[in-house]
């Protein structure tokens, strides 16, 4: 995929991060293989409940029904031909890597230490236009004592359905996000964020989302959203 994509490995080459006085490679953590680190893989902070749900969706991915979405500190590596990814919308292929800042991080991947913030992995079901995120909120996302801040819940919902909307429509922006918070999410618990596209009208993509406890017994939040396509260029 992405043969016409202007984002290449060369455009991903580490650049100085002078603004932060950091090491040149600090904008993107590389693994020992020289590839950007994929954060959507198990680490020591993942609870058994998180691993169980992750393994469930890995199993469901074996026949291609679901696809695990790799996750880096930036969106950029997802757009390079070197990294297999279902985000093949032609609109995204027009993004030019060299014009995208490398001195930034995705909000949900902004913390260095494992387990303190957003631990998550997304799986896309292309035929159902559905994205699920297996998510474990860490202690630095606290709102009321012991519970995740509602803003962090909004962020994981926005990213889940945002990824789904990007898959169907290319570059989109959140125009509206409406959330009913039903039950607080305990820090360190595991939830399933389940979002899908309901319909599209021109540039508008309408989605809905539910956040369930891992055992499916507690509905934590319900949301509806409108994303609007913004053509690249
Ligand atoms: C891009 C690289 C992708 C790589 C992807 C790879 C992997 C992704 C995987 C995982 C996901 C990872 C990351 C997460 C992804 C996304 C989550 C982050 C998303 C955000 O965090 S994003 C920031 C917050 N977001 C904003 O910062 C938007 C500010 N805003 C604007 O930029 C404009 O406001 C805009 C663009 C929304 C519209 O502006 P515009 O000029 O293009 O269009 P216009 O206003 O004409 O509206 C056209 C029609 O929509 C109707 N309409 C508009 N707004 C409405 C509303 N609120 N309610 C109801 N209807 C509305 C109008 O009424 C009209 O309707 P009609 O045509 O029927 O008259």
UniProtKB/TrEMBL annotation:
Membrane topology qualifier: Peripheral membrane protein
Localisation: Cell projection, Ruffle membrane; Cytoplasm; Mitochondrion inner membrane; Mitochondrion intermembrane space
Keywords recorded for this protein, A-Z: Apoptosis, Cell membrane, Cell projection, Cytoplasm, Fatty acid metabolism, Hydrolase, Lipid metabolism, Membrane, Mitochondrion, Mitochondrion inner membrane, Transit peptide
Matches recorded under InterPro entries: HotDog_dom_sf (IPR029069), THEM4/THEM5_acyl-CoA_thioest (IPR052365), Thioestr_dom (IPR006683)
Record GO biological process: apoptotic process; fatty acid metabolic process
Catalytic activity of the protein: (5Z,8Z,11Z,14Z)-eicosatetraenoyl-CoA + H2O = (5Z,8Z,11Z,14Z)-eicosatetraenoate + CoA + H(+); hexadecanoyl-CoA + H2O = hexadecanoate + CoA + H(+); tetradecanoyl-CoA + H2O = tetradecanoate + CoA + H(+); dodecanoyl-CoA + H2O = dodecanoate + CoA + H(+)
One GO molecular-function entry: hydrolase activity
Annotated signal peptide: none
Domain Thioesterase: 146-218
Pfam families listed in its UniProt record: 4HBT (PF03061)
Entry's EC annotation: 3.1.2.2
Bilayer-crossing regions: none
One GO location term (cellular component): mitochondrial intermembrane space
Family named by the database record: Belongs to the THEM4/THEM5 thioesterase family.
PANTHER family cross-referenced by the UniProt entry: ACYL-COENZYME A THIOESTERASE THEM4
Stated name of the protein: Acyl-coenzyme A thioesterase THEM4
Protein species of origin: Crocodylus porosus (Saltwater crocodile)
Source taxonomy: Eukaryota, Metazoa, Chordata, Craniata, Vertebrata
């Amino acid at each position: 995929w992405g043969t016409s994509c202007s984002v290449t490995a060369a455009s991903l080459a580490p650049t100085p991060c002078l603004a932060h006085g950091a090491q040149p490679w600090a904008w993107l953590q590389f693994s020992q293989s020289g590839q950007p680190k994929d954060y959507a893989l198990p680490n020591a902070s993942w609870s058994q409940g998180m691993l169980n749900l992750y393994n469930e969706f890995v199993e469901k991915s074996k026949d291609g029904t679901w696809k695990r979405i790799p996750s880096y500190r930036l969106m950029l590596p997802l757009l390079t031909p070197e990294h297999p990814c279902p985000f093949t919308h032609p609109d995204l292929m027009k993004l030019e890597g060299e014009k995208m800042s490398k001195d930034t991080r995705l909000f949900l991947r902004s913390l260095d230490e494992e387990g303190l913030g957003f631990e998550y992995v997304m799986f896309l079901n292309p035929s159902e236009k559905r994205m699920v995120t297996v998510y474990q909120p860490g202690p630095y996302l606290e709102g009321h004592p012991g519970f995740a801040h509602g803003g962090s819940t909004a962020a994981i919902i926005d990213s889940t359905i945002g990824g789904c909307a990007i898959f169907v429509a290319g570059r989109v922006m959140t125009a509206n996000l409406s959330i009913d918070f039903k039950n607080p999410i305990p820090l360190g618990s595991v939830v399933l964020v389940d979002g899908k596209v309901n319909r599209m009208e021109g540039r508008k993509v309408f989605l809905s989302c539910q956040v369930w406890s891992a055992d499916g017994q507690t509905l934590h939040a319900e949301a509806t959203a409108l994303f609007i396509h913004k053509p690249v260029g």
